[in-house]
Amino acid sequence: MDRLLDVVEVAELLGTSVRFPRRLIEERRIEYVKVGRHVRIRESAVRALIEANTVQPRRAGSLRAVA
Question: Helix-turn-helix domain: which residues (predicted)?
Answer without folding.
Answer: 4-53
